């Protein structure tokens, strides 16, 4: 059983949804970013998504764009991101790690080489925003060979006709993008989401998590009722941004994650 | 616009998934994918629909002013003393550049799809002006994303777009240039996916845009074929065009790709020199990568981070290139060269004085390459250069470079 499967099995027993937290690797700098990463599980994060910074994040809102630029400015590279995961795995062998980002840095690294290195570092899954099912053949087999789940995105525009195409080859879990928009945008309407999630659930056994627009413990609570997990990104990244000026605010990030986690219990 | 295609043809690309060899494709977020597929569906239906093309050609003739003349540049020919030089006068089009060709085509498609809002990105502002123009004509609200830096250096075009009723949004994200304007347009599209059509301004972006824009721009090459036959009774020997994203070059080249005797040269913007990091020559100085929905050549560092392009010409200032050019480059069917800012600036002045035509800085790059090759070629060697835009928009940039206070 993969770490992701184990995690969702354990949460099912507990009868609660997963808290998935997003941070940008290297934001605001390499060292602080690792401190933030380490603090996430102890504050209640069940699964961690780590963003791989890219100069041109066309699916991200301002908050995550800026986080990526801070990281790049601090000298973050894909290699450093993998090193950070390796270091994290020395003390945490349980928390699933998902790398999330855009295709080009992986393409420059080499898809096969990247998949091998990610597996070796202890990465469990990948979300590559601009590799839809039509194009992810450049990565899919390498990921499979290296026990990396390809986590597919499903969006409000993914209609019934298209859904099977997205489900085919998906593994780990499914990431439901709650709104048509970029990260950190408007709040989703739970009532509008419900039928779509139900429809997805009827066609797959994979866990479904909801992301985009979930900002507060209240949002987290509401959305967690609809799915197997929720993703919080921009509002955590906003707290991390404060660390650029004042490293002593690390506790703020932890407290916020703790408040999200409590809301799910 | 179908024609018989041989298996070994250069003109039968892309495949059904929009790939030109390894290049092209549809590297977009899932939210956009269904929309991209519906654009493709609408395009496939439109391109085989005679009424669509009748409307396109009607507007091309009476609104754009096509066909544009094929002009024998006698003084330029005499000046270089070698090859016989013709200009394809797409700078005489309505709005002053070739961009209007694909704007008319795409706005007709957007109407067919029932879209009620148009967005576009622009660098120099030529594509933005052309988009704003067709939106005024078709009564559609238009939002143009433009890098904040370009808003500053292309003020006259910003004013033009506003006059035409468009909203111009200065983009400050990233490096505040054309690539960031394109990112911001994608972000808008992902947010307003239901009612909005993204009118992409070159032969780039996800499939079917590179093919579709090429088909609309190919009106240039098809006219040249006919006009050349009329004037000289034969095919030209060399075609030459400037390349940013590559739309005017693709439009000129494509109808000749399967004529092995026709040589083609694409001229990239060499900025301060391709050996510096201040240029926009994605083929000469870039490597394959994935950005803006396509696999192609990009200016990037070894970690796959996209680098800023530099060119005196805002219209060429893009760190990527259309995927079909990437493929033609690998196939060596088209020769790609670059000229520097200074060479383009000299060509801008030379063309103005010789022919009484002030060219845009973009085709000035093509003219600059003419100065290198034309003198050495025999007098019966015919070159067609795409004069794809007029230079009125550039007089401020050029004056500043020449130290003239306007």
Topology:
The complex is a heterodimer of chains A (265) and B (406).
Chain A: H1 3-14, E1 18-24, H2 30-42, E2 47-51, H3 62-73, H4 78-89, E3 97-101, H5 103-109, H6 111-121, E4 125-128, H7 137-145, E5 149-150, E6 152-154, H8 163-167, E7 174-177, H9 190-201, E8 208-211, H10 217-224, E9 229-232, H11 234-242, H12 250-263
Helix pairs in contact in A: 2-12, 4-6, 6-7, 10-12
Chain B: E1 19-20, E2 23-27, H1 33-47, H2 50-64, E3 70-72, H3 74-80, E4 84-88, H4 99-112, E5 117-122, H5 126-138, E6 142-147, H6 148-153, H7 155-163, E7 167-171, H8 178-191, E8 196-198, H9 209-217, H10 219-232, E9 238-243, H11 247-253, E10 263-269, H12 282-285, E11 287-291, E12 293-298, H13 323-330, E13 335-339, H14 341-355, H15 361-373, E14 382-386, H16 395-401
Parallel strand pairs in B: 4-14, 5-6, 5-8, 6-7, 9-10, 9-14, 10-13
Antiparallel strand pairs in B: 1-2, 2-12, 3-4, 11-12
Helix pairs in contact in B: 2-4, 4-5, 4-9, 5-7, 9-11, 10-11, 14-15
What is this entry, summarized?
The complex is a heterodimer of chains A (265) and B (406). By secondary structure, chain A is of the alpha/beta class.
Give structural notes.
The complex is a heterodimer of chains A (265) and B (406). Chain A has 265 residues and is α/β, with parallel strands linked by helices. Chain A has a single domain (3-258), classed as Alpha-Beta Barrel (TIM Barrel), CATH 3.20.20. Chain A contains 12 helices and 9 strands. Chain A has helices spanning 3-14, 30-42, 62-73, 78-89, 103-109, 111-121, 137-145, 163-167, 190-201, 217-224, 234-242, 250-263; strands at 18-24, 47-51, 97-101, 125-128, 149-150, 152-154, 174-177, 208-211, 229-232. Chain B has 406 residues and is of the alpha/beta class. Helix content of chain B is 42%, strand content 17%. Chain B has helices at 33-47, 50-64, 74-80, 99-112, 126-138, 148-153, 155-163, 178-191, 209-217, 219-232, 247-253, 282-285, 323-330, 341-355, 361-373, 395-401; strands at 19-20, 23-27, 70-72, 84-88, 117-122, 142-147, 167-171, 196-198, 238-243, 263-269, 287-291, 293-298, 335-339, 382-386. In chain B, helix 4 (99-112) packs across helix 9. Chain A binds chain B through residues 54-62, 65, 69, 72, 77-78, 102-109, 129-132, 134-135, 152-159, 162, 166, 177, 180-182, 185, and chain B through 17, 25-35, 37, 173-175, 179-180, 182-183, 186-187, 190-194, 287-293, 295, 298, 300, 302-306.
